[in-house]
Prior knowledge:
Elements lengths: L4 E7 L3 H12 L6 E7 L4 H9 L6 E5 L6 H11 L4 E4 L5 E2 L3 H11 L3 E11 L22 H6 L10 E3 H7 L10 H12 L1 E13 L10 H14 L5 H24 L3 H10 L1 H4 L3 H9 L8 H15 L1
Parallel strand pairs: 1-2, 1-4, 2-3, 6-8
Antiparallel strand pairs: 4-7, 5-8, 6-7
Helix pairs in contact: 7-8, 8-9, 9-10
Amino acid sequence: MQPVISIILPTFGRLQYLRPTVASVYRQTWRDWELIVADDGSDAETQAYLRTLEADSRVRLLWLTHSGIPAIVRNAALREARGEYVAFLDSDDLWVPEKLSRQVAILRSRPMCGWCYTAVSHIDGSGQPLTEPVFGPWLPCDGAVFERLVTGPVVIRTPSVLAARELVARAGGFDETIRSGEDYDLWLRLALMSDVALLDEPLVQVRRHEVNYTRDWEIAFTGRDHSLEKLQGTVDIDRRMLLRTERTRNALTLAARHASLGNPVQMLRALCRALPYSWSSPQWWLALVKTPLRPYVPQRLVDACRRRRGAAAL
């Protein structure tokens, strides 16, 4: 029979985290699910563990040639999904037992919403809670969230999402040309198509550890720019201007990061690449002058200026 929920679980090794992740699926109070594990060429020990899961008819395994691109792995599982809804779970994160049942209930009570997400908490590699906010203060947002997704206040973590499978299919799934931020890219397209419902409770534990997927921090900026750019031809003029402004801000942040790391060539490259869509922005011209000087300014002076701007904003 067709399950209500298809759980999409990509994996590549990390067996010490994968075991508790799968255990959190089995602890769900919602039992009508299928688990589709897309293995991206894991080691023999991980694959041996995965084969033990096949004793449960609700579990299906996909053996893929290693690509290292999460979008490719998730899409492979999505193509096999049969559920009314799809849920996304990374191989090192955890769900609380009521997560799926609470989300199914809210989507069925709000037919205008084709997808939903929850708040999350963060844990370290050993499962201990992290008290410092990872992405800044939590700002709960519900309903039409496209503009707030673009500008940043809305943070939607992949393991917190439950979406109608038909909606994800119409959106085109994950963009396989993006190496990092493919989830954010999909959320933008879903937000253009449907309101989102929020369960403002931490029903997901997101793990932060030394073997998280990407250590190449720059690809997050390039992936975000690609996501914003490709939407510009699909939205109205106000949103087009919003996307252009946000692309400029993204490029300036990237340039400033390179400047602080002492990478002048990469800094100038980031500024020059932004020229075609940022030339009309005063902030871009100011950054062209200011950013190259950043490595030579004492950090104490930078911190003092930030405090002054913060005080003036209050």
